[in-house]
Amino acid sequence: MAKRHPFLQDESGQVSVNFAVLAAGLAGLAASLAWLYADRIGQLNFNIGARVQERETRPSYAYVPYDILLHDHFKSQLSTLNDEDLEQLSSWGNATREERAALPEEQAGVLDDFDNAITIAHGERYKSRGADDSYNEAEVGRIFEDLGYGSPGAVATAG
Predict the structure, then answer these.
(1) CB of 89 within 8 A of CB of 131?
(2) What is the C-alpha to C-alpha distance for residues 124 and 60, in angstroms, rounded to an integer?
(3) How far apart are alpha carbons 91 and 95 in whole angstroms?
(4) How far is residue 64's CA from residue 143's CA, in Å, rounded to a whole number?
(5) Are residues 85 and 107 in the same domain?
(6) C-alpha to C-alpha distance for 159 and 149, rounded to whole angstroms
(7) pLDDT digits 0-9 by tens, 69-102
(8) Angle at Cα 127 formed by Cα 135 and Cα 99, nearest 5°?
C-alpha cells in the first residue's frame, strides 16, 4: 500500500482530468436537454419543413415538382421567351395563384409547376420575379398560343 500512496498524491495530470470531467459533464447535460426537449425539437423541425413548402415562403430551389417531366418541359419552353413575354406570364401567374386553390389537385399541381418554371426562368436571367399581378389578357393569350397551348386554361390540362 505504501507504493500506491505516492501515486495518489501526484497532481501532475490533475488539470487534464479536470477538463475531461468537465467535458463529460457538459456532454451529459446536453444529452439530457436533448432528451428532455426532443418532442418540441421534432415538432419545430416538422413545422419548419412544412412551412418551406408553402408557396409564399418556399425558395424556388426547394420546390418539389408535381410532374418532373412536365416541369422540365415548362422550364425549357419558358427559357425561349423574351423578357417582356416572361413578365406578362409572371403577372398572370401572380394574379391566378388564389384561383389554383379551388382547382383539383392535378390541375393545381401542373399550374404550380408552370408557375415555378416562370420563377426559374427569371432566376436564369439573373432577375427577380416581381409581385405585379396586372397583365394584358390579349398578350398572355398570344404567348400561350405561341407556346402551343391555345389558351392559359389549357396549361392546367397539359399533364
Answers:
(1) no
(2) 12
(3) 6
(4) 26
(5) yes
(6) 12
(7) 999 999 999 999 999 999 999 999 889 888 888 8
(8) 35
How far is 143 from 77, CA to CA, in rounded Å? Answer: 11
**DSSP per-residue codes, the chain:** -TTHHHHHH--TTHHHHHHHHHHHHHHHHHHHHHHHTHHHHHHHHHHHHHHHTSTTT--GGG---SSHHHHHHHHHHHTTS-HHHHHHHHHHHHHHHHHHTTS-HHHHHHHHHHHHHHHHHHHHTT-PPP------HHHHHHHHHHHT-SSHHHHTT--
The answer to whether position 59 is within a domain reads: no
User: Is residue 93 situated within a structural domain?
Assistant: yes
The pLDDT value given to residue 82:
93
Which range marks the domain in which residue 72 is found? 66-155
Task: Kindly state whether residue 57 falls inside one of the protein's structural domains.
Answer: no
Residue 126 is assigned to a structural domain of this protein = yes
The domain tally of the chain equals 2
